[in-house]
Amino acid sequence: MSTKAKPSNRTPKDDEQVSAFARAILPLFGKVPTSKLRKSRKPQEDARHQANSTAAKAALAAGALALPPGALGWLTILPEMVGVWQMQRQLVADIAALYGKRAQLTPEQVVYCLFQHSAGQGVRDLVVRVGQRTLVRRASPRLVGMITRRIGATLARRAFGRGAARWLPVVGAVGVGAYAYYDTARVAATAIDLFEGVIEIDADEVD
Predict the structure, then answer these.
(1) Rounded Cα distance, 160 and 123, in Å
(2) Angle, alpha carbons 31-146-181 (nearest 5°)
(3) Which terminus of the chain has a smaller tally of CB atoms within 10 A, N or C?
(4) CA dist 1 to 4, 172, 207, Å?
(5) 14 in Cβ contact with 72 (< 8 Å)
(6) Does residue 132 contact residue 194 with C-beta atoms inside 8 Å?
(7) Contact criterion met (CB below 8 Å) for 101 and 195
(8) Residue 2 CB-density burial (10 A; 0-12 exposed, 13-18 middle, 19+ buried)
(9) Cβ of 16: how many Cβ atoms within 10 Å?
């Protein structure tokens, strides 16, 4: 007895949104940011201080971009997210520096820290945790494409909630700012957890 495949609920507009997010994520696999910070004697304490400072800046920037009302506000969703990612990206580099692991930092670790809590399935091929040891895999161009699409699909599904907030400019902006603060704090927690352990870099690219 044959079974018919269920029709997909995806639309060309959905695919376009996923592609837009995937293209925005792709530059995060570029050269890692440099940090002016040095190895700290109290890395966890200093990392949390750095996280609080960055989270406050991210909340302010995201909230400001969420102020335009209605349909105009929809146009600020992706720029808002990209702006927060850039701050979080620098935060990960700063935390790596505080733990004395700046030289070991790779784009894969940055992307893992940024999205592990919000799109864990998207970054599952980048990092393997075994106790306190972490194996970081180098992603091939093909895998990078797959990962950006996975994360893009997750973020595109959540974009509706961000867009709805634009119809309540002041209240929505506060909510968007609060989420940016929370999201940045989660990124910092992932980075601290990662850099406190032993990191090994796999020299071979994973396809």
Answers:
(1) 22
(2) 60
(3) N
(4) 10, 52, 37
(5) no
(6) no
(7) yes
(8) exposed
(9) 10
Say what the pLDDT of residue 49 is.
Answer: 98
Instruction: Burial-class residue 131 by CB neighbours within 10 Å (0-12, 13-18, 19+).
Output: exposed
pLDDT of residue 61: 92
The CA-atom distances, in angstroms, between 142 and each of 25, 120, 125, 175 are: 14, 19, 12, 36
| Alpha carbons 85 and 49: distance in angstroms, whole number | 18
- Residue 134 CB burial class (10 angstroms; 0-12, 13-18, ≥19): buried
- Between CA 9 and CA 164 the distance in angstroms is 21
pTM of the prediction? 0.86
Domain ranges of the chain: 12-23+42-206
Whether 97 contacts 38, CB under 8 Å: yes
Which of 72, 60, 83, 79 has its CA nearest to residue 166?
A: 72
